[in-house]
Automatic annotation (TrEMBL):
InterPro entries: Beta_helix, PbH1, Pectin_lyas_fold, Pectin_lyase_fold/virulence. Keywords: Signal. Residues 188-323 form the Right handed beta helix domain. SMART domains: PbH1 (SM00710). Residues 1-24 form the signal peptide. Pfam families: Beta_helix. It comes from the Bacteria. The keyword Signal applies. This is Right-handed parallel beta-helix repeat-containing protein.
Length: 351
């Protein structure tokens, strides 16, 4: 009887292993142009995901939004050299028919190792209302988007519910190739209502308004975000650097907690009209800001601001800056061992 049970268990275990391997198997497809890329994504969506799409070196003229609705889809360059694979829209003119290159509506989507540029809205849109968790953007260049480069929305009252949680953005460049944006309503990463994001080792350049109003932040989390980590990024000549929260908000619409650590934020372009704070906490309680370097030669007086009465139990420590660290509008923080940076470190403005 025991021998029979052992045999039955072994057969069942073997069948489970075979089923698991079949489920985990991924398709792999190499593409060489925009039409093949679009077809490969449609095939992956239809098959239920679990697909690797490899981009051969070359230029891809994007003329249709790439919508990803299946989970576990990866789109990456075959070479791993992001400058060698360039996806280009029809330009930044407002609301032409290529508004977005990648529209993410599913979990576990990874984009890696290429350049995407020249669109009239967002280069990447992640749909928080579709629970598009575990998004990864790695080793990419995003250039010249009319509005925010990476936009993450949270639907309210429109049938979709959920958030896009636990994303990773690393080793990317997000920039305007000119010294400023074509439009004030822009930002680098703009995230609503998501939790557990990590943004690390990226470079942001020239997220600056040409006029009318101030641009959004190079990195901005607000409107119900929580437990965000922004680590070891470089922000150059942008109106506002890193922002957690926005305005005087209640708990549902603020940012809760998180870490801003090891970032370098520099600004020396005095032609920009709206130079503003490097790190801003607005209705962002329980947040830690530490070990950042901020050096301004523009006129804005403050490097770090903590604002509004909801901003409390904040720790600001070990930052190096040549501008003030200041409470505004009733914000509260514990400040420790922050140092005045009288001269920039060698090579700082060459970042």
């Amino acid at each position: 009887m025991l021998r029979c049970n052992i045999k039955t268990f072994a057969i069942a275990f073997l069948c489970m292993g075979i089923a698991f391997c079949a489920q985990a198997q991924r398709s792999v497809e190499e593409v060489t142009n925009a039409n093949e890329l679009l077809k490969a994504v449609k095939n992956a969506n239809k098959a239920g995901g679990h697909a690797d799409i490899l981009l051969a070196d070359g230029e891809y003229a994007i003329r249709q939004r790439i919508i990803i609705t299946a989970p576990h889809v990866t789109i990456r360059s075959k070479s791993g050299i992001r400058e060698n694979v360039v996806l280009t829209g029809k330009g930044m003119e407002k609301r032409n028919d290529i508004e977005v290159i990648f529209d993410i509506k599913s979990k576990h989507v990874t984009l890696a190792g290429f350049t995407a540029q020249n669109v009239s809205n967002h280069i990447i849109q992640v749909r928080g209302g579709k629970d598009a968790d575990n998004f990864t953007l790695r080793n990419c260049i995003l250039r010249d988007s009319y509005e925010q480069f990476l936009k993450v929305g949270q639907m309210r009252g429109k049938g979709d519910k959920g958030t896009a949680d636990n994303a990773l953005i690393e080793n990317c460049i997000i920039e305007y190739t000119a010294s400023q944006a074509p439009n004030w309503y822009t930002g680098g990463i703009d995230v609503h209502g998501s939790h557990g994001w990590v943004v690390k080792n990226n470079t942001f350049r020239n997220i600056a308004s040409p006029g009318d109003k101030i641009a959004e932040h190079a990195i901005h989390f607000w409107d119900g975000t929580e437990d965000i980590k922004v680590i070891n990024n470089v922000v150059v000549n942008s109106d506002r650097g890193i922002g957690f929260g926005l305005g005087n908000r209640d708990a549902e619409r603020s940012n809760i907690g998180g870490l801003i650590e090891g970032n370098i934020i520099i600004s020396n372009d005095k032609s920009h009209l709206f130079n503003d704070v490097a790190i801003g906490l607005e209705s962002s309680p329980d947040t830690i800001v530490r070990n950042n370097t901020i050096f301004y030669t523009v006129d804005y007086p403050n490097a770090i601001e903590y604002r509004f009465s909801a901003t409390k139990d904040v720790v600001i420590e070990n930052n190096n800056t040549n501008r003030a660290i200041k409470a505004r509008n009733g914000g509260e923080a514990y400040t420790y061992t922050n140092r005045c940076l009288k001269q920039p470190a060698p090579g700082l403005f060459g970042a």
